[in-house]
Amino acid sequence: AAAVTGEAGKAKAGPAISHFTLEVAAKDKLLYCMALLRLGLCKRKSLIFVANPDAAVRLRLFLHKFGIPCCALHAELPANSRAHILQEFNRGIYDYMIAAADDAAA
């Protein structure tokens, strides 16, 4: 079963920002993510947070198989690669960026 919760806020001087969480079974996470993006339910640039670098790369490869261009950002990449990925995301090359949590800082 899935539970969707959402919170949307609008800043007067800035863009509208929305935050949603979706809780699904572990075996269905890739499928749900692909469906949300492929069906156009996320219409703007989106950040997708995952637990670790392996999950980020796995999701990126899975989405590319279905024709969804995205990039993965995690701490195991060299600094120049991370900077390049951020520049491409900011320029609009990618609408979806997968970011892995950095557990080293915790």
Please explain how this structure is put together.
With 106 residues, the protein is an alpha/beta fold. Helix content is 34%, strand content 28%. It has 3 helices and 5 strands; from the N terminus they run E-E-H-E-H-E-H-E. The chain has a 3-stranded parallel sheet, with helices on both faces. The longest helix is centred in the middle third of the chain and has 13 residues, at 53-65.
> Considering DSSP H and I runs of 4 or more, what fraction of the residues is helical?
25-40%
Poorly predicted regions are 1-6
Q: Figure out the total of helices.
A: 3
Bulk shape = globular
Q: Tally of extended strands? A: 5
Euclidean distance between termini CA atoms:
31 Å
Residue share in β-strands: 25-35%
Q: Which structural class do the helices and strands define?
A: alpha/beta
The H-and-E topology, N to C, reads as EEHEHEHE
Q: Quick gist of this model?
A:
By secondary structure, the chain is an alpha/beta fold. The protein is built from 3 helices and 5 strands, in the order ββαβαβαβ. The strands form 2 sheets. It has a 3-stranded parallel sheet with strand order 3-5-4, with helices on both faces.
